[in-house]
């Protein structure tokens, strides 16, 4: 919860609009609209637990803006979910969709729950119960959810099935990130990490990096963190530090990432190992905290966990040359200023992690058309979009001598401004008098 001295996460997110607005000529009404979420729904979700008891969970869905199309955004199950966080995430989704040119607005949803404490049956009951409460608030032409923190393809499949039963028709386009057998898209499982990887590859070309000379640390080893680490490792990058919610490991020579992924997914523990097939041997490594990982001397730091990991308290101790935000909002606005002054390039979340929503858009298109693409086509289309928008924002950053984040928000504001102004603003109606 925010204090008198610390803005809420939503206020912190919105504050970045004012800086970006200085570098666009959008109508002030555009900024005013973006300060206010379009609609919010708070629900209570009753779940019958395995022991027969009844528990009530708080659920949220925020639709931020739909000027560019139906709203789009994930659903997270996490104990820290609250309405302020969901509002901020919905705002970021509006900007993210505009950054990569998708015909979507932003939304987000969540349930306040520790999903790790639920059985699989309890998780299914919660997932279906949440959709029963949201069934009139979402839809394939209005608001399309997707997976997020501690939700996955199976959860999305349950949710799509529940919505279809309520409306008595098969409706795969209401949810994206589904299992392939239920209308999911190939390439969706690693899309968030792959999108960040494509951004790093564009930066590699711009800065003429040799991957074998680049040291990388990844905070957060879930789906997105694993995907970007796996792709970078295959290209020769040195992944020297990895962490999950329990802590991290550090090895200056770098880890064998496929082995770490295998052990993490098999045992749910992050262990320093080398695997030959299913035979794994322990590898010496330093045990570190998540906080220590952030402050390592590396070339590229990838926060892929939760919000507000780099704040005014630790920003001066960040030694990485580049921060690639795979998580949503891992760097606070105050920390942004410190990193910029120290010459650290931050590739912002509304660009770096936009691969997930981009391939979700592909899935939605395929569901509506009833025609499904091959994986090579999905990857090719994703890379084209990520490269195009990365380079446009990178060029704007240098031309205007601003941060990459400000350039990304300005890029989004121009597209959002066009949609708002196409419907008429005060200037239009004054001229009409």
Proportion of helical residues: 40-55%
Q: Which CATH C-level class of the domain at 191-352 is it?
A: Alpha Beta
What is the CA-atom radius of gyration, in angstroms? Answer: 21 Å
- Overall 3D geometry? globular
Give me the strand/helix succession: HHEEEHEHEHHEHEEHEEEHEEHEHHHHH
Round the mean pLDDT to the nearest integer and report it: 93
> Strand tally, please?
14
Q: Which spans of ≥5 residues are poorly predicted at pLDDT below 50?
A: 1-5
- Using the coordinates shown, work out and report the CATH topology of the domain at 191-352: Rossmann fold
Q: Mind summarizing the main beta sheet?
A: 7 strands, mixed
Topology:
Elements: H1 9-21, H2 28-34, E1 39-48, E2 54-65, E3 71-78, H3 83-99, E4 105-112, H4 120-134, E5 143-147, H5 153-167, H6 191-207, E6 215-219, H7 223-234, E7 238-244, E8 247-250, H8 257-267, E9 273-276, E10 279-282, E11 286-288, H9 290-294, E12 300-303, E13 322-324, H10 333-341, E14 345-347, H11 349-352, H12 355-369, H13 375-400, H14 404-421, H15 426-432
Parallel strand pairs: 3-4, 3-5, 6-7, 6-12, 12-13, 13-14
Antiparallel strand pairs: 1-2, 2-4, 7-8, 8-11, 9-10
